[in-house]
C-alpha cells in the first residue's frame, strides 16, 4: 500500500505543475500592478554603459516624461523589442535604458556585450544606466527583462509594462500613457 | 479557380483525418480490451489513412504558400510574392498553424511506420500502441482544426501581397531545424505508446522495452540533431556568436532530450536485466510528457507571455487540457498498474546496474533543474514572490557541475560488469585512464594558452576521461582473455573480436565519444573565445590573434527581397601564408522593414572567424565585431556523433530477430491468447 502511494507521487507532482501552468495562462503580466506605482523612482547611483566615469542618479529622470526600459544583451526578447523602442524614440519619447545583469568575466567584457547589443539592434536610449549586479533592477522589482517603466517629469513611476512591448502596445498603451502624464 | 479551392480541399482532408484518428484510437483500444480481432484490425488501415489525409492537407497548405494564395490568412501573414520558393516551402512551418500541422503530419508518419514494422508483434500490442498514438493524433488534429486552423481565409478582401516571412527564419538552418526537432519530440510518442500499452495489457516484462528501444533511439537521434541545428542557427544567424541562451524555447527542447537520454539507458537495463521496470515506464511517460509540455510552453505563450509575443489564450487552454488529459491519465494508470512486486535480480552498489541508476538519477536531476529554471518565473508570479530573474548564471551554476559528475560515472559504466564487480578490479581496469586524463587535462591549457585555467582543465579532464576509459574498455573487450577459446595469434584474435562487437556497443561508443567532443567544444569556446568591437571604414585594419583584417570595400547590394550594405574584409595571416576575403552584410528586408545582420563566417575545425556588421556610425564607417571562436564546430560535431551513435545502435541484429520474445506464462487470459497468436 505504501508503495502504491509512492507511485502516485509523479501524478501529484504533475498536478501541482498543471495548476501553476493554468494560473500562468490566466495571468496577464502586462496588467500586473507594480508595487512601485505612484511612488518615486528608487534612488540609485550607477555609471553609464558608455562611460564608466560618468555617474548618474534619479535626478536624470526629472524634468521630462521618460520611459525606462530594462534590457540585457542576454535577453532574446529584448532583441525583438528593439524596433518598437526605436519607433518610440523616433516619435519623440525620451528613453533611458537600464542594462540589467550583463554577463561577462569582468566590467570591460560586460560593457562590451551591452555596447555590441546596441550596435547590432540600434540604440533608442538617450542614456544607458549600467546595472551589472541588478541592484537597481532589484529595487524596481524587476523579475525578468524586458520591463518598462513610465516616469513622469517629477520622477514618479506612472506605468509599469512587464514583458515585450508589441507594435500594438506602442499605439494603444505606451503613447497614450506618455501623453497622459506629459 | 483551382488555386482558390486548394485550401478548402486541405481543410476537408484535415476533417477526414481527424475522424480517422478517432476510429484509429477507439476501435483498436476497445477491441484489445474486449478481445475482438476485427476491431483491433482497424488500427493499421486507419493509421495509414489518417496519415494520408494529413499529408493531403499539408500538401494543400504548401501549395497555397507556393502559389501565393494570400486569401489564406497564414500565407498572407508569413509569405510574400518576392520570397524565394524554398523559403515559401519552409514558411509553411515557420508559423504557429503550419507548425502544429507539421507536428500532426510527423505523428502520422511515425504511427504509419510503427504499423509497418510491427508485423512480428502480438496483435493486441499493435492495436493498443496504434490506438494510443491515435488518441494523441486526435488531440492534436482537434487542436489544429478548432484553435489553429491553417486554412482560415481572409475573404472577400484578399490582400495584394503578404507580410513576408520573418527574416530571422529565412535561412537554410531553419528549413531543417523544426522538422528534425519535431521528429524527435513526436518520435517519443512511440515509446510512450508502448509503455502505456504494456500498462494496459498488464504485461510489464522486458518484451515491450525491446520493441520500443529502436524507436526511442531514432527519436532521440533526431532530437539531438534538431537541438544542434537550433544552436548552430542561433550561432550564425543572430549575429552574436552565442550558441546557447537557456531561452525557454531552447530549454523546452533540452528537457525531453535529457529525459530521453535517461530513458535510453533505463530501457537497456530493463531489456537486459529485467530490473528498473516501473522506472522505465515512468521515464517513457515523462519523456513524452516533456515533449508535449515543450509544445505547450512554446505554443501557449504561458512563459513567453512575459518574454515574447502575445498569443491566443484559447490555444494555451486547449493544449493545457490536452496535456492534462494525456499526462494525468498516463500517470494515474502508472500509479494503478506499475509492477507491484519488488525487483528480481539484485545488484550491489558497484555494478553496471548501479552506475546506470546513478546516471539516471543525475539526468533526472538535470531535467528537474532545467524544468524549474524554465517555469520559475511562472511559479513566482503565481505565488506573488517575483523578484528574481532566472538567467544563464542559474543554469550554468547547476548544469555544469552536474555534467562533470555525470562524466565521472559515464567513464566507469561501460567497463563495469552487471550485478557486481570488485572495486579493485574496476580500479585496475580504469586507473591508468583516470590518471592519464587528469595529467593530460591539466597540461593542455598550459600548452594551448600558456596559462593554467582550472575551468578548462576540468572540462578537458572530463572529455579525456570519457575517451580514455572507452579506449581501455575497447582494449579489454577485444583482448584474448575475453575471447578465451581463440588460439590464433594476438592480432587476428583482436581483429576478430572487433568484428564481433555489436552495433549496439559501437552505438554506445559513438554516443559517449560524441559527448566528449561536445564537452571539448563547450570548454574551449567558453574560455578562449576572443572578441573585439571596432569602428572601421574602407582602408582601416585590425590585428587580432596573429591575423590582419582590412576593410577593402563597402558597397550596396540588392537581394531578391532585401537591400544590403556589404563590407569586404581581407584577412591575412601574420606570416602571409594565406589570404582570403570575408563579406559580412547588413540587410534590410523590404516587406517588414526589418534590419538583419548577415554574419561572415570562416569555419574551421580548430577555430571559426566570425565577423558581424553593427550599425553605421557615420557616412562611411561602421561598427564591426570580430570574433575568434576556438573549437566551436566541435559542439555540433559531437552532437552529430551522438545522433549517429543512436542510429548505429538501432542496426543491432537482436532488434530484427523475429519472435525473440521469451514470454513468461502469466495467468492473464489475454496474454495467453496473444501469445498463441504470436506462435501461430
Automatic annotation (TrEMBL), chain A:
Q: How does it sit in the membrane?
A: Single-pass membrane protein
Kindly state which keywords UniProt assigns to this record, in alphabetical order: Cytochrome c-type biogenesis, Disulfide bond, Redox-active center
Q: Which GO terms describe its biological process?
A: cytochrome complex assembly
Question: Predominant location of this chain?
Answer: membrane
Residue ranges occupied by any Thioredoxin domain in the UniProt entry:
35-179
State if Disulfide bond is listed as a keyword. yes
Matching PROSITE patterns, A to Z? THIOREDOXIN_1, THIOREDOXIN_2
MF terms from GO for this chain are: disulfide oxidoreductase activity
Q: Give compartment(s).
A: Cell inner membrane
A cellular component term, taken from the record's GO annotations: outer membrane-bounded periplasmic space
Q: Which family does it belong to?
A: Belongs to the thioredoxin family. DsbE subfamily.
Q: Which NCBIfam families match?
A: dsbE (TIGR00385)
Q: What's the protein name?
A: Thiol:disulfide interchange protein DsbE
Organism, by scientific name, is Halomonas cupida
What are the top taxonomic ranks of the organism? Bacteria, Pseudomonadati, Pseudomonadota, Gammaproteobacteria, Oceanospirillales
Automatic annotation (TrEMBL), chain B:
Single Gene Ontology BP term?
Answer: cytochrome complex assembly
Keyword list (alphabetical) reads: Cell inner membrane, Cell membrane, Cytochrome c-type biogenesis, Membrane, Transmembrane, Transmembrane helix
Residue intervals of the Cytochrome c-type biogenesis protein CcmF C-terminal domain: 320-653
Transmembrane domains' residue ranges = 12-34, 46-67, 100-118, 125-146, 182-202, 214-234, 254-270, 279-297, 317-336, 357-379, 399-418, 430-450, 456-475, 504-530, 631-651
- Cytochrome c assembly protein domain residues are 93-300
- Endpoints of the signal sequence: none
Topological type in the membrane: Multi-pass membrane protein
Enumerate the GO terms in the molecular function aspect.
heme binding; heme transmembrane transporter activity
Q: Name one GO cellular component term.
A: plasma membrane
Q: Which InterPro entries match?
A: CcmF_C (IPR032523), Cyt_c_assembly (IPR002541), Cyt_c_biogenesis (IPR003567), Cyt_c_biogenesis_CcmF (IPR003568)
| Presence of keyword Iron | no
The superkingdom listed in its UniProt entry is: Bacteria
Where in or outside the cell?
Answer: Cell inner membrane
Give the family per the record: Belongs to the CcmF/CycK/Ccl1/NrfE/CcsA family.
Q: What is the role of the protein in this entry?
A: Required for the biogenesis of c-type cytochromes. Possible subunit of a heme lyase.
Q: What is this protein called?
A: Cytochrome c-type biogenesis protein CcmF
The organism is: Halomonas cupida
Amino acid at each position: 500500500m505504501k508503495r502504491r502511494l509512492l507511485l502516485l507521487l509523479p501524478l501529484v507532482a504533475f498536478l501541482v505543475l498543471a495548476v501553476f501552468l493554468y494560473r500562468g495562462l490566466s495571468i496577464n503580466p502586462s496588467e500586473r500592478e507594480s508595487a512601485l506605482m505612484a511612488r518615486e523612482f528608487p534612488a540609485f547611483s550607477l555609471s553609464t554603459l558608455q562611460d564608466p566615469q560618468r555617474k548618474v542618479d534619479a535626478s536624470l529622470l526629472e524634468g521630462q516624461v521618460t520611459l525606462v526600459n530594462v534590457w540585457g544583451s542576454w535577453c532574446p526578447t529584448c532583441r525583438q523589442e528593439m524596433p518598437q523602442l526605436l519607433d518610440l524614440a523616433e516619435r519623440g519619447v525620451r528613453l533611458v535604458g537600464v542594462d540589467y545583469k550583463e554577463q561577462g568575466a569582468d566590467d570591460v567584457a560586460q560593457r562590451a556585450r551591452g555596447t555590441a547589443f546596441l550596435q547590432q539592434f540600434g540604440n533608442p536610449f538617450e542614456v544607458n544606466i549600467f546595472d551589472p549586479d541588478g541592484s537597481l533592477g532589484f529595487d524596481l522589482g524587476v523579475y525578468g527583462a524586458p520591463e518598462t517603466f513610465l516616469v513622469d517629469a517629477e520622477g514618479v513611476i506612472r506605468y509599469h509594462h512587464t514583458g515585450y512591448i508589441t507594435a500594438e502596445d506602442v499605439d494603444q498603451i505606451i503613447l497614450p500613457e506618455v501623453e497622459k502624464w506629459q | 479557380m483551382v488555386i482558390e479551392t486548394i485550401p478548402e480541399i486541405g481543410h476537408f482532408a484535415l476533417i477526414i483525418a481527424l475522424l480517422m484518428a478517432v476510429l484509429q484510437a477507439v476501435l483498436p483500444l476497445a477491441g484489445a480490451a474486449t478481445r475482438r480481432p476485427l476491431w483491433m484490425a482497424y488500427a493499421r488501415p486507419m493509421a495509414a489513412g489518417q496519415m494520408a489525409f494529413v499529408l493531403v492537407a499539408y500538401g494543400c497548405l504548401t501549395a497555397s504558400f507556393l502559389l501565393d494564395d494570400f486569401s489564406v490568412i497564414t500565407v498572407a501573414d508569413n509569405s510574400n510574392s518576392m520570397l524565394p520558393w524554398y523559403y515559401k516551402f519552409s514558411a509553411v512551418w515557420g508559423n504557429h498553424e503550419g507548425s502544429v500541422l507539421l507536428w500532426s503530419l510527423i505523428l502520422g508518419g511515425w504511427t504509419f511506420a510503427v504499423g509497418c514494422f510491427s508485423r512480428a508483434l502480438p496483435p493486441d500490442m499493435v492495436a493498443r500502441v496504434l490506438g494510443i498514438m491515435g488518441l494523441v493524433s486526435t488531440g492534436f488534429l482537434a487542436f489544429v482544426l478548432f484553435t489553429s486552423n491553417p486554412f482560415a481565409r481572409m475573404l472577400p478582401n484578399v490582400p495584394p501581397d503578404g507580410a513576408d516571412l520573418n527574416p530571422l527564419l529565412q535561412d537554410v538552418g531553419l528549413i531543417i531545424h523544426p522538422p528534425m526537432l519535431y521528429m524527435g519530440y513526436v518520435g517519443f510518442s512511440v515509446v510512450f505508446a508502448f509503455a502505456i500499452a504494456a500498462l494496459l495489457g498488464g504485461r510489464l516484462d522486458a518484451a515491450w522495452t525491446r520493441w520500443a528501444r529502436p524507436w526511442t533511439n531514432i527519436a532521440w537521434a533526431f532530437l539531438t540533431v534538431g537541438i544542434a541545428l537550433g544552436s548552430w542557427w542561433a550561432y550564425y544567424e543572430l549575429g552574436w556568436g552565442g550558441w546557447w541562451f537557456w531561452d525557454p524555447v531552447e530549454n523546452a527542447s533540452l528537457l525531453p532530450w535529457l529525459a530521453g537520454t535517461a530513458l535510453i539507458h533505463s530501457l537497456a537495463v530493463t531489456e537486459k536485466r529485467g530490473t528498473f521496470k516501473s522506472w522505465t515506464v515512468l521515464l517513457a511517460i515523462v519523456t513524452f510528457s516533456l515533449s508535449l509540455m515543450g509544445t505547450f510552453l512554446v505554443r501557449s505563450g504561458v512563459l513567453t507571455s512575459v518574454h515574447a509575443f502575445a498569443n491566443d489564450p484559447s490555444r494555451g487552454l486547449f493544449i493545457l487540457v490536452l496535456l492534462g488529459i494525456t499526462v494525468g491519465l498516463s500517470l494515474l494508470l502508472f500509479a494503478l498498474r506499475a509492477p507491484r512486486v519488488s525487483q528480481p535480480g539484485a545488484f550491489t552498489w558497484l555494478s553496471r546496474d548501479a552506475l546506470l541508476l546513478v546516471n539516471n538519477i543525475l539526468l533526472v536531476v538535470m531535467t528537474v533543474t532545467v524544468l524549474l529554471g524554465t517555469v520559475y518565473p511562472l511559479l513566482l508570479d503565481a505565488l506573488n514572490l517575483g523578484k528574481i530573474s532566472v538567467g544563464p548564471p542559474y543554469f550554468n551554476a547547476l548544469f555544469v557541475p552536474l555534467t562533470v559528475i555525470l562524466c565521472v560515472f559515464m567513464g566507469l559504466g561501460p567497463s563495469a560488469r552487471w550485478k557486481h564487480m570488485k572495486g579493485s578490479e574496476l580500479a585496475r581496469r580504469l586507473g591508468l585512464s583516470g590518471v592519464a586524463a587528469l595529467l593530460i587535462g591539466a597540461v593542455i591549457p598550459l600548452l594551448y594558452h600558456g596559462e593554467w585555467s582550472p575551468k578548462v582543465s576540468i572540462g578537458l579532464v572530463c572529455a579525456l576521461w570519457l575517451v580514455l576509459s572507452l579506449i581501455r574498455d575497447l582494449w579489454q573487450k577485444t583482448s584474448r582473455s575475453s575471447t578465451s577459446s581463440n588460439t590464433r595469434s594476438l592480432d587476428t584474435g583482436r581483429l576478430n573480436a572487433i568484428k564481433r562487437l555489436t552495433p549496439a556497443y559501437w552505438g554506445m561508443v559513438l554516443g559517449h565519444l560524441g559527448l566528449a567532443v561536445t564537452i571539448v567544444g563547450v570548454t574551449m569556446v567558453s574560455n578562449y573565445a576572443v572578441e573585439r568591437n571596432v569602428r572601421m571604414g574602407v582602408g582601416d585594419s585590425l590585428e587580432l590573434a596573429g591575423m590582419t583584417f582590412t576593410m577593402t570595400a563597402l558597397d550596396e547590394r540588392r537581394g531578391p527581397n532585401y537591400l544590403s550594405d556589404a563590407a569586404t574584409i581581407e584577412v591575412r595571416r601574420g606570416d602571409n601564408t594565406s589570404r582570403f576575403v570575408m563579406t559580412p552584410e547588413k540587410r534590410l528586408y523590404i516587406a517588414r522593414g526589418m534590419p538583419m545582420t548577415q554574419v561572415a563566417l570562416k569555419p574551421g575545425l580548430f577555430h571559426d572567424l566570425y565577423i558581424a556588421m553593427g550599425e553605421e556610425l557615420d557616412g562611411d564607417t561602421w561598427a564591426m565585431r570580430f570574433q575568434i571562436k576556438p573549437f566551436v564546430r566541435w559542439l555540433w560535431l559531437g552532437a552529430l556523433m551522438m545522433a549517429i551513435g543512436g542510429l548505429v545502435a538501432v542496426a543491432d541484429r537482436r532488434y530484427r530477430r523475429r519472435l525473440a520474445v521469451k514470454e513468461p506464462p502469466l495467468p492473464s487470459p489475454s496474454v495467453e491468447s496473444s501469445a498463441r497468436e504470436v506462435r501461430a
